[in-house]
Amino acid sequence: MATLRPSSTGWALFLALLTILLCLVVPGEMVKHNNFKKCDQSGFCKRNRAYANSASNQGSSWSAPYHLDSSSVKFSNGQLLGTIVKTIENNEKVNLPLTVSFLESGVTRVTVDEEKRIKGDIELRHESKVRKERYNEAAKWTIVGGLELSSTAELVKETEAGVTKVFYGPNNKFQAIIRHSPFEVHFQRDGETHIQLNDKGFLNMEHWRPKVENPDREDNDSKDNVDDSTWWEESFGGNTDSKPRGPESVAMDITFPGYSHVFGIPEHADSLSLKETRGGDGHHTEPYRMYNSDVFEYELNSPMTLYGSIPFMQAHRKGSTVGVFWLNAAETWVDIVKTKASTNPLALGVSGKTSTQTHWFSEAGQLDVFVFLGPTPQDLSRTYGELTGYTQLPQHFAIGYHQCRWNYVTDEDVKDVDSKFDMYQIPYDVIWLDLEYTDQKKYFTWDPLTFPDPDGMQKQLDDSERKLVVIIDPHIKNEANYPIVEDMKSKGLAVKNKEGNIYDGWCWPGSSHWVDCFNPAAMSWWTTLFKYDKFKGTHPNMFIWNDMNEPSVFNGPETTMPKDNIHHGGWEHRDVHNVNGMTFVNATFNAMLERKRGEIRRPFILTRSFYAGTQRIGAMWTGDNQANWDHLAASLPMVLNNGIAGFPFAGADVGGFFGNPSKELLTRWYQTGIFYPFFRAHAHIDTRRREPYLAGEPHMSIITQALHLRYQLLPAWYTAFQQASVDGSPIVRPQYYVHPDDEAGFAIDDQLYLGSTGLLAKPVVTEGASSVDVYLADDEQYYDYFDYTVYQGAGKKHTVQAPLEKVPILMQGGHIIPRKDRPRRSSGLMKWDPFTLVVALDRNGQADGTLYVDDGETYDYQNGAYIHRRFSFSSSSLSSEDIGAKGTKTGQYLKTMAGVRVEKIIIVGAPAEWEGKSSVLVLEEGSHTGSQASLQWFAKQGGKAAYAVVKDPGVSIGNLWKIDFS
C-alpha cells in the first residue's frame, strides 16, 4: 500500500482531493525527493564523506588516528581481544575495545566499541533517559547461530613488529593479518588477499564529547575546521532531532582487491551489479542508502533507500566469491568506487585488474562486521544463513498465485471474484484484503456494513482449499472506546516520544500510536490479539500482511518516526530503525503460531519492511511499483538481489501498483511473475479492476496459460524452497551464481535459473518484443521447454522466439524436473495428483534432479514426515533413491502418500537407438517381479530434439524404483 502524506489537519479533505488528483493524473516518476535526505542533508553522512575526502587528498601523508595498542592484544580460544586507541586533539586518547572472533564456520567477526559509552561515563543532554551505550542488540534480532568460536584458529608467532597474524578456517587456509599502526586488517585465502578493512584509513568512530555551549576556539574542534553544526541537533522536514548522546557515527572502508563486481545490500531499485557512487558516466553521485522508508512511487536506477535493508555485500570474480555483513540497525550509507588494483606492497597476493573500494557509515551503534572468504557463492549463502537463519519453508499454498488489490470492497465482492476464477478455470490460492475491510481503520475488526459475514466468505474459500490474507499494520488508531488502543496505552506497550510520553503520529487511521515490539510484554500482548476468540470472524485459512512497518508515519520526518523517539530498554529509534519492521513481523509470526493451542501451522506473513534475518519469518515484496515496462524490467534484478542477500521469498506487484497497464504489459507481467518466488498481483485503489478474467481474449487465455505453468511446476518450486530452507540457496538464481567462472555473465540480471532445476527463464520485459536473446554460458544442450528446440554454444546469445503467447524458458541438459500436469483450481486440490518427470539429457546422455514433498502446512517434516528423492538417469536407466532422513513420523507419512504415483516420464534428447522400442522394464521396491510400461519415441525434427514418453510406469513417488530403457 502506498503512503499519502497529509498534514496533521484536514485529513478527510486531503484524502478526497488527492483521490481526485490520482484519478486525473497518470502516475510518473513522482518520488518526492524533498521528503528524503541526500547525503549532504544527513550530518553524519556528509561528515564521513568529508573525512574520506580529506584522507584521500592527503594520500601517503595521511596519518590515520587509530592504532591498536600492541600491549593489549590477547588471543585465546579463537578470539583476539585488544584496544584500539584513537588519538584526538591535545594528544588525548579514546579507548575503543576490539574483539576479533574467528568462527568455526570460517567467518570472522570484527567488533569495535567505545569504552566511555560502555561504562556509562558520558553525559546525556536534555535530561534524556535513553541508554548511554552504543546500541549492541542488533544481533539479538538478527543472529540465530554460527557464532561458535574456532577450535583450530592459531595465532602466528610475531614475525614483524606491529603485526598480528591468525590462521583459521577450513584446514587453516584463511589468514587475518592485523596491522597495529595504523589499524587495518587484511583477510587472505590461500595466501591471496581478498578483503581489506581500513586499508584506506577511513575508520572513524565519533567519540563522545561534551557540548561546549559557548565554545572557545582554542578548546573546540572548530579550530581544525571541523563542521560541528549537526553534532548536537539536526532539522529536516519540520522536525528537529535532539541527539541527546551527541555525534556517534561509525565508519570504515572495506576493499575487495581484484574484484570488479559487487552485489547485494538490498533494497534498491537498481541493477544487480552495484554501480559506483562517486559520479562518472552511468554511475551515481549519492551513496547507496539503507534507511527503511515508505518511498512514494520510487524511481529506478537509483541508490535511494527503499522499504528494507540487508547490509550484506558480496564481491565476485572468476574463481572466488567473498563478502561482508555490516551488522548495524541505524541509518547506513555505502559508497562504492572502482579503481585499478592496489600497488600497496602490504597487500600481499593481490591479483586482478580492478578493485572495488567501499566505504560504510552508520549513524549509531557499534562497528560490527562479519567477513566471509567463500570461496563460492554457495559458501556465502550457507555461512550467512547459519548466522541469520535460512528462509522459512512456507506452507505450500504460499508459493501459488495470490490475487490482491486495494481493495475488495465487500465480502460478497470477494466471493464473486472467487467464483469467477472458477468459472473461467483460472487457478489461484489466496485472495487478499487491504485495510478497507476494517471498521474505520481499526485493526482486528470487520466493517459491519461491507464485511458482515467474514465466516461465510472464508468458508467459501476453504471449500476450494483457498486462503485469505488480511492486512494488520503497526499503527493503532487513537480513538476512545477502541479496546486495542486503550489496552496498549494502559499497559505501556507503545513507542514513546523523546519526552517519554506515548508517541502520536498520523497514518491511515489518522491519529495513531505504534506498538513497541522491542518490548517482550508487547509481543506477548500482540500474540493474544490473533486468537480466534479475540479476532472474531477469522478462520484457520486466514493469514497476515504486515505493511507500513518501516514504520511509515505520514507527518514524520522522512515519512517515518523521529529518531529521538524511545523504545523499550531505553534505546532511541535511531539505534533500531532498520530492524524495527522485523520485530513487528516477529511478533505477528509468534502470534500466528499460537492462534489455537494444539493447532500449529506454519505462519504466512508478508512484510514490506525487513532486515537481515526477516527471511526466517516471512515473505517480502518490492513495494509500490508502477505499471510501466521499466518497472517490470527492474523487478528482476530486485528479486534476484534479495535472493543472494539471503531473503529469497521475494516478489513484485504483478501489473504494477500505480497506474493501469496495457493488456500487453499485464500479460507480459504475469509471464514474468510466474518466476517470482512470491507471486502476487496487486493494484492501487484508483486503478481499474484487472483480474485475469477481465483481460479479454486472447490475453485472458495467455495469462491463464502462464498461471497453469506456475502450477505445473509447483513441485520444482517447493523443492527449491526446501533447499533454500536448509542451505540458504537463492530460489531464483542470477547468471553469475550458476556459472561463477563465466565473466561475461557476471552483470546479467534479466534472466534467471529456478533453483537447481536447470530451468532458465528470460521473461519479455520490452514492449512489442516477439523474441529474446538468451545468454548461454556453457556448451551444454539447452532445450526449449515447450517444443524441445535445441540451443547450444557457450558464451553467446541465442535468439528465442517469444510471441505474446509464449514464455521463453529453456531446460539445461543434465536435469530432471518434477511437475504436476493436471490443472486444478488451487494447489491444495493438487495434493494427491500424480507426478510427471521431465528428463533433459546432457551431451553424455545423463541427468539428475531432486524432489521434496511434505504435507505443506505443519511442522511434521521436522520429525521425518516428508519424501526427498534423487532421480538419476545414466546408462539408459532411470532410478529413484531416498535422500531423506528418517524420523518418528516417516512411516505414517509414507503410508498416506503410497497412492501418489508417477504417471508420465518424458525423456528429452532421447537416443536414436530407442526408435521402434515400445516398452520399458519397471522394477519397484516391494515387487517381486518387474512390469512393463509403454514407451513412445518421437524423432527429432528440424532443430528439435528427439524425445520419448513413458506412460503410467505405476511407481509410487515415495518408493525405491528403477526403469530400464535398454
UniProtKB/TrEMBL annotation:
Query: What CDD domains does UniProt report for this protein, alphabetically?
Result: GH31_GANC_GANAB_alpha (cd06603), GH31_N (cd14752)
Q: Where in this chain does the record put each Glycoside hydrolase family 31 TIM barrel domain?
A: 392-720
Signal recorded as keyword: yes
Q: Could you tell me what reaction this enzyme catalyses?
A: Hydrolysis of terminal, non-reducing (1->4)-linked alpha-D-glucose residues with release of alpha-D-glucose
The terms describing its cellular component in GO are: glucosidase II complex
Annotated keywords? Endoplasmic reticulum, Glycoprotein, Glycosidase, Hydrolase, Signal
Domain called DUF5110: residue spans: 836-877
Q: What class of enzyme is it?
A: hydrolase
Q: In which pathway does it act?
A: Glycan metabolism; N-glycan metabolism
Signal peptide coordinates: 1-30
Q: Name one GO molecular function term.
A: alpha-1,4-glucosidase activity
Gene Ontology terms describing biological process:
carbohydrate metabolic process; N-glycan processing
Chain ranges of the Glycosyl hydrolase family 31 C-terminal domain: 728-817
Chain intervals for the UniProt region annotation (Disordered)? 210-249
Entries under InterPro entries matching the protein: DUF5110 (IPR033403), Gal_mutarotase_sf_dom (IPR011013), GH (IPR017853), Glyco_hydro_31_AS (IPR030458), Glyco_hydro_31_C (IPR048395), Glyco_hydro_31_N_dom (IPR025887), Glyco_hydro_31_TIM (IPR000322), Glyco_hydro_b (IPR013780)
Residues forming the Glycoside hydrolase family 31 N-terminal domain are: 97-335
For this entry, the protein name equals: alpha-glucosidase
